[in-house]
């Protein structure tokens, strides 16, 4: 089974990555302290300034173009229109009820789908990674299902499970499952053979090897997949709502589309982006906690800067 | 995985005698063929004996260790530990790997306590024993460090403590110090000898460093270029306790070195010639 994980292969292997000696590196840090820290701060300021400038340029340009009539705001919307739409929704609710209720519904579907999909993905990925026979039996099926555009399943779920919560959760689960499954499977396969042999010789049972060696080792891979999988959960929930629902952000998009209200579509997108960013921050926190044992990596230092 | 273990005594019963009789090991190659790593290998290690195994790279030294550990099965012949055939991973065996095999996400203390905890010992006892072993290998104060925060030599000490805490009656070591610098290596060798004197497990110590082999061992076994079989066995009659740094200058050491090197050299050349032709 070939698995594509953009993040997986650039990571340094925690078990073979050769970190510097403690004494040495702390000494070097002390030496670098004064000058380096200032340079890092200056760089961070520069990045922020450019980011802000870019934001102003894009949204300012958009706003200007539509107010000046260079582009038709009926088709392309405008930032002020989006803000107006958001305020209206927040203050007087949407056609489907209060805005918070729509956000709550979508969030509930996405989170449920995410959690169930992640758990299923980990269990199946680790099981197939550990038990060769299972992997051989299921490989063609998984490849086949993976090749199907799974979003189409949304229609199936709506028909089978109805307009309510469960059809959206089901779609989110399916989307999340495969991402996590492939990473968990690959992570399990990549576990250092020596670590397993060592644990077994030290007296670990098969279950202890799975829990204490394989899972922690595969966690680097699994967590890398969580970043993209919340996005997929959100897509599952929203597409599900788009296909048929009486509540949720996907419904707002559909209604706005029906009314040729482009600002409404963009406003819903803004909300989704905020949700995704908040989730991303939470997952990054979780990642730092669970992988606290890892040596600091070059990429981490760069993103921190 | 069907491994039966005696849970009562961590080191298991027996004295730690190892015997390989006419052992042949073949690996299946990806193209469906077979690769013979060991052929008709005979090796005996007496209880409490320190046996060093030298041989050219890729001849089958690691494979020999995995057979004794029960990680792999012999294709032909018998592998006996305490006169009974090895079936699966045995109890009472310690294995120090060439590359780091300590769990990188566990602290030093948790790594050393892993063996007793896996075997169902009470947490409190396991941690106390682990602290004791960390003190013995000179790592007190590093209990809560993670392996990546330690130097290579310190990680090797963790690996040693992790193995020795189970009080193995057989200690298998696969080029354990090869990744260390020369000074650290001789310090570690002395520490290993001191620790070995305490419980006196039987040791099979694989190395490519002949000096290290003679300085440590009671017996040096020279393997042929792959498929490995025993070429010569040399008894090292140097007195103990030894200091690895100093013993190198003893006339008897030099004499042994010359004899064994004489035997090993041909095999190294054969192995080298093979890789050289392969490279062409
Ligand atoms: N699991 C395996 N499958 C196939 N070939 C193997 C396997 N393990 C070792 N070998 C081969 O057996 C030979 C001996 O390997 P090894 O025992 O690791 O040598 P050494 O430790 O003496 O350097 C090598 O040529 C190696 O490629
Ligand atoms: Mg080897």
TrEMBL record, chain A:
Pfam families: BPD_transp_1. The chain crosses the membrane at residues 45-64, 110-129, 141-163, 169-185, 218-244, 264-283. SUPFAM superfamilies: MetI-like. It is a multi-pass membrane protein. InterPro entries: MetI-like, MetI-like_sf. Residues 1-26 are annotated as: Disordered. The keyword rRNA processing does not apply. GO terms for biological process: transmembrane transport. GO terms for cellular component: plasma membrane. Residues 103-283 form the ABC transmembrane type-1 domain. Keywords: Cell membrane, Membrane, Transmembrane, Transmembrane helix, Transport. PANTHER family: ABC TRANSPORTER PERMEASE PROTEIN HI_0355-RELATED, ALKANE SULFONATE ABC TRANSPORTER-RELATED, MEMBRANE SUBUNIT. This is ABC transporter permease. The lineage of its organism: Bacteria, Bacillati, Actinomycetota, Actinomycetes, Pseudonocardiales.
Automatic annotation (TrEMBL), chain B:
Residues 1-20 are annotated as: Disordered. The keyword Transport applies. SMART domains: AAA. Pfam families: ABC_tran. InterPro entries: AAA+_ATPase, ABC_transporter-like_ATP-bd, ABC_transporter-like_CS, ABC_transporter_ATP-bind, P-loop_NTPase. Transmembrane segments: none annotated. It comes from the Bacteria. Keywords: ATP-binding, Nucleotide-binding, Transport. One of its GO terms (molecular function) is ATP binding. Signal peptide: none annotated. Residues 18-250 form the ABC transporter domain. The keyword Chaperone does not apply. It comes from Solihabitans fulvus. This is ABC transporter ATP-binding protein. Residues 1-10 have a biased composition (Polar residues).
